[in-house]
Design brief:
Length: 261
């Protein structure tokens, strides 16, 4: 695929450009303790780079696959971008899927690290799988008392500094960005690998097709982020400088619309 000069051709570059152009604009609005909180593009970019450096320090190598097993939320977005910034490949795992299928996808995708919401969702994978991962990051809750390994890490343990590294290696536009699995309704799920330049092309196509969506536009994100469509829409919001409202429970989407206006 031919890359377009002067246009971001990787997801980390899309984020870098947005943070440079509007660092103080609200990137995401997310639910927290019954209310809504916000994070700016500048702060989101900074935290993404801190987490990317922490994941690399835990052994994440370029091209390695990292599973994401969590509901829609700020944690999903931060680690999604951190993994890509570190050169990893995001594998979205649907939290509501049955354990057998999740375990099959995790094995087939050759996941090396896992980011999971909590101990309850972690239990959907086998103990043998969990022990084999280089690192398992828990977004919520405490460290499980029953854990029999030293690979479990709390989100807070990866953000022990607020200062991002000065330099992180650039990501190749031809490098893999995400591995998406089909529903598996006609047999075992099928994996589809997308490169950074393909994702960037989709984002450009959407934003050019809808020029009325401009800086300050508000988006509501309520589909699971294991879904590529929702991720692409969030990236389109980033491209134009919009704000994304993250709805963890899809049943609450109608209640969120008046809030997002």
């Amino acid at each position: 695929m031919t890359n377009i000069p002067n246009e971001p051709n990787t997801v980390p570059e899309l984020l870098r450009v947005r943070a440079k152009e509007s660092p103080d604009s609200v990137a995401f609005s997310y639910e927290d303790n019954g209310g809504w909180r916000t994070i700016t593009w500048g702060d989101f970019y900074r935290r993404t780079r801190v987490l990317a450096a922490a994941l690399k320090a835990k052994g994440l190598a370029p091209g390695e696959h990292v599973g994401m097993l969590a509901p829609t939320g700020l944690g999903w977005e931060l680690f999604h971008h951190a993994i890509l910034t570190a050169g990893g490949v995001v594998v979205g795992l649907e939290p509501h899927d049955v354990p057998d299928r999740l375990q099959w996808i995790a094995d087939h995708a050759e996941i090396r690290m896992l980011v999971v919401q909590d101990e309850k969702l972690l239990a959907k994978l086998s103990a043998q799988q969990v022990r084999a991962y280089r690192a398992v990051v828990l977004l919520a809750g405490a460290r499980p008392q029953t854990a029999d390994g030293d690979n479990l890490i709390l989100w807070s343990e990866l953000e022990v500094t607020t200062e991002p590294p000065r330099v992180l290696p650039d990501v190749d536009p031809n490098a893999s960005a995400t591995l998406i699995y089909t529903s598996g309704t006609t047999g075992q799920p099928k994996g589809i690998l997308y490169r950074h330049d393909q994702v960037a092309l989709a984002v450009r196509a959407i934003t050019r097709a809808y020029p009325s969506i401009q800086v300050g536009a508000r988006f509501v994100c309520w589909l699971p982020l294991s879904n590529l469509f929702q991720r692409i829409m969030n990236l389109a919001a980033m491209k134009v400088g919009g704000t994304v409202y993250l709805v963890s429970n899809p049943l609450d989407v109608m209640k969120t619309l008046p809030e997002a206006r």
